[in-house]
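Sequence in, structure out.
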Amino acid sequence: MHIVFAPDRPPTEPTGRSQKPRSARSLLVVTITALLLLTAWSYPPNHATQESQNSFGDHHRSTNRYPNQSNCRWYRICERSVEVSDTTVSYVETGKIKRARCHRPRRSQCARSDRYTKGKTLLFLHGRAFTKQDWIDSGILRKAARAGNKAIAIDLPGYGDTPATTSENGQFLADTIQALGLSPESVVLVSPSLSGFHSLAMLELDPPPTLAGYVAISPKGVPTFAGLTPETTIPTLIMWADNDPAIPTSQAELLASKIPDSQIKLFESNTHPFYFDLTTEFNRELALFVRSLNHKPQTANAVST
């Protein structure tokens, strides 16, 4: 009987396929999971509008779900200042920013928001007890931008972050519009209460500015306002509370008689700053008026409720 012994096997050699360490595989899994979660957070499966807020107001992203489409819009509110006469005017502005990808725009892009804003420029003034911040807090500034306009709110001299000035009210406002780089023909001036001393005084300049539109919200200074000549056409919407405790509605009719192309809108309210109480109705009427400026002239001296 022959017994054959098998030779000893040499040690097993590596096959050439490197095995990843367990720690590297774990890191890869964690990275992929994080990317998936980030993608799900950035582009939610539903089409609901995404909004977030910061100290300047709020950003708005459109309902676009897919990042490679061109209709993704952000609305960023930016705080700025500009030198006017002997003071520095503090203001905020917002407008549509159109991005190729749906991620938050850089702060520097605020200056280019008018690149994609084809509507009017709404310039908001304020009353005695308010500042530019109240237009942000009420959501009115954002609503104006979402309608396709550029919206700007300023602090008048001696209010908010704007120091007092020695300039005359009307000339100061005209200089502010110029310092902001705005063309008066594209500006819709929104002037409530105390700011009427500025806006009405500006309309009395010789020659008066050729504004795209004027929204007078229970402005002060109506009795001393000289009025516009028939040759001066500035579409005007006069807004008033039907039970205004500060300024009677008779002044709305007086103001309409002094502006040829004007109409009156009365709101059911017994407060002077009704526009902050009835924001939905106010936004609707403001949007309708601004939209009408692009189509047909206003009906002269019409009264509606």
